[in-house]
Design brief:
The structure holds two protein chains of two kinds. Chain A is mainly beta. In chain A, 0% of the residues lie in helices and 50% in strands. In chain A, the strands form two sheets. In chain A, strands 2, 4, 5, 6, 9, 10 and 11 form a seven-stranded mixed beta sheet that branches. Chain A has a four-stranded antiparallel beta sheet with strand order 1-3-8-7, with no helix packed on it. Chain A starts with a strand and ends with a strand. Classes of the chains: A mainly beta, B mainly beta.
């Protein structure tokens, strides 16, 4: 099992450009999450999904969109990147609604110039 | 809404014991997690509490008091490799399921 993988690992964008971050998990997990982590801010929830075809907003959803067309994939889109979106993005998945731990991907480092 | 507070930084000596506190406010509490995160890496799971009391796992223990909205992570016999950030996270009921909200993390420095 690969666990949770994220593509790409690192990306540099110019202001106004768009991109999609891909998160994939091979554990048949129902729940998937996108977080961003900035220095001193901890992990902040952007969007999450409780199952295939469903998405919901987290703490900081503005400027991002998501899709969960397949259970194993959770895509995070930036339509028009801004320097404020420079961050490290982590994806995580959980099997279900109990006390299971979240499994994190390795992170995507995004720099918006 | 949700709010999670934990100290920004702590320093302790190798071989000692350190306690990292976490207080939280949430509307639909469904469990509290502690994660360890080394610089440049993803968080990794340490412990989970859903009922009041102490959970012990080797050198790490975690305590929860739901009535006080309080938890702590206890690290014993500190090692240099324990230098990392420790994240307190609360699982909260949300639309259609659950979501996990993280505190800002406590950066622990272990000195020789």
């Amino acid at each position: 099992n690969a666990g949770v993988t994220q593509t790409p690992k690192f990306r540099v964008l110019k202001t106004g450009q768009s991109m999609t971050l891909l998160c994939a998990q091979d554990m048949n997990h129902e729940y998937m999450y996108w977080y961003r982590q900035d220095p001193g801010m901890g992990l902040r929830l952007i969007h999450y999904s409780v199952g295939e075809g469903t998405t919901a907003k987290g703490e900081v959803p503005d400027g991002y969109n998501v899709s969960r067309l397949k259970k194993q994939n959770f895509l995070l889109g930036l339509e028009s990147a801004a320097p404020s979106q420079t961050s490290v993005y982590f994806c995580a998945s959980v099997r279900g609604g109990g006390g299971e731990t979240q499994y994190f991907g390795p992170g995507t480092r995004l720099l918006v110039l | 809404g949700q709010n999670i507070d934990q100290p920004t930084e702590m320093t302790a000596t190798e071989g000692a014991i350190v306690q990292i506190n976490c207080t939280y406010q949430t509307s639909g509490f469904n469990g509290l997690f502690w994660y360890q995160q080394h610089a440049g890496e993803a968080p990794t799971f340490l412990s989970y509490n859903v009922l009041d009391g102490l959970e012990e796992k080797g050198r790490f223990s975690s305590f929860l008091s739901r009535s006080k909205g309080y938890s702590y992570l206890l690290l014993k016999e500190l090692q240099m490799k324990d230098s990392a950030s420790y994240l307190c996270a609360v699982r909260d009921r949300a639309t259609g399921g659950f979501k996990t909200i993280f505190g800002a993390g406590t950066r622990l420095f272990v000195k020789a």
